[in-house]
């Protein structure tokens, strides 16, 4: 869990619930296969903000939920997210995440993929235990969309012709969908009315979009030590994210040609030149503007909910998604 004092009050509103989620995660990681537990604990305990399970807890309490199933639902969401991280690091050949070696760098690709599969299947076991068919339906659909989003992103690697609209579709599928599912299923679990359920679904979608856009921005303007990964990783992998798409569109012909060549080739041979172009073209400011627009939409979606500490924390969470530096 993050120790960032700027967001500690957000966690404080569901502190006991969050402690229960951590205990549930450790319980559900138990396996008769030692390597499964070893890799599972390694990736789960790597740190991170656990925003998605936090979102489940906040949304459920904001709807007036008084039961305990939201703890298991938050654990499900964390397992789904962690499974995607394990698989993504293999696909991207990543060796650093959150400042530590990735699981595939330590144990190899095959164990990482298989433990990711274990986490997926354990998540669905927990869904069955919750026993709400509507929750299962939303999460089943979400995992399918996320998989499609990852394939879409893979198809876009080293393709410098990707439009902003198409890129937004990709991040909506691969990132925003799990945020959306987190708040949406929490509302369902709490028995919220249709209008509240839709409001929380929209909130999660816009929050996830804002979060991913800031990730894109930090890849060209962040600090490697704070982020726990290397600046320019997206460029090295040939991923055309929004800062590059904007810089190609708004920069000079020569600048656009240089960025297109760098995307198509991959690697970091021209990182310094690309960073200069991205930072001077207004691409980072444009990306931040788009992230703020999404955060504002997330906050506006909460207007239907009654005033509560949890609703206030969700509003602050949207602001934090844009203001964060890691």
From TrEMBL:
Translocase keyword on record: no
Cofactors, names only: Mg(2+)
Record's keyword terms, sorted: Magnesium, Metal-binding, Transferase
Name of the featured protein: Polyprenyl synthetase family protein
Signal peptide as annotated in the record: none
CDD domains found in the cross-reference section: Trans_IPPS_HT
Upper classification of the organism: Bacteria, Pseudomonadati, Pseudomonadota, Gammaproteobacteria, Oceanospirillales
Family per record: Belongs to the FPP/GGPP synthase family.
Top-level taxon of origin: Bacteria
Organism expressing this protein natively: Kistimonas scapharcae
């Amino acid at each position: 869990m993050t120790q960032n004092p700027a967001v500690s009050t957000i966690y404080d509103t569901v502190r006991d619930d969050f402690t229960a989620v951590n205990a549930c995660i450790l319980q559900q990681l138990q396996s008769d296969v030692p390597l499964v537990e070893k890799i599972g604990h390694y990736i789960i305990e790597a740190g991170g903000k656990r925003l998605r399970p936090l979102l489940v807890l906040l949304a459920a309490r904001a709807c007036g939920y008084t039961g305990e199933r939201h703890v298991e639902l938050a654990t499900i969401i964390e397992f789904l997210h962690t499974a995607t991280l394990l698989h993504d690091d293999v696909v991207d050949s990543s060796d650093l995440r959150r400042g530590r070696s990735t699981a595939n760098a330590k144990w190899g690709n095959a164990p990482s993929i298989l433990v990711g599969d274990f986490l997926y299947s354990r998540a669905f076991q927990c869904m069955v235990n919750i026993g709400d068919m509507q929750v299962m339906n939303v999460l089943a659909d979400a995992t399918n969309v996320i998989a499609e989003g990852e394939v879409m992103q893979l198809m876009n690697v080293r393709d410098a012709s990707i439009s902003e609209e198409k890129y937004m579709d990709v991040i909506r599928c691969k990132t925003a969908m799990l945020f959306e599912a987190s708040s949406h299923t929490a509302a369902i679990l709490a028995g919220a009315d249709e209008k509240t359920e839709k409001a929380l679904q929209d909130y999660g979608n816009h929050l996830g979009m804002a979060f991913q856009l800031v990730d894109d921005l930090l890849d060209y303007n962040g600090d490697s030590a704070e982020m726990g990964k290397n600046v320019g990783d997206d460029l090295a992998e040939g991923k055309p994210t929004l800062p590059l798409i904007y810089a190609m569109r708004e920069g000079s012909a020569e600048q656009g040609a240089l960025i297109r060549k760098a995307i198509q080739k991959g690697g970091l041979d021209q990182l310094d030149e690309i960073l200069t172009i991205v930072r001077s073209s207004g691409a980072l400011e444009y990306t931040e503007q788009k992230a703020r627009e999404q955060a504002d939409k997330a906050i506006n979606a909460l207007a239907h909910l009654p005033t509560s500490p949890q609703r206030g924390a969700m509003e602050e969470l949207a602001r934090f998604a844009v203001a964060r530096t890691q």
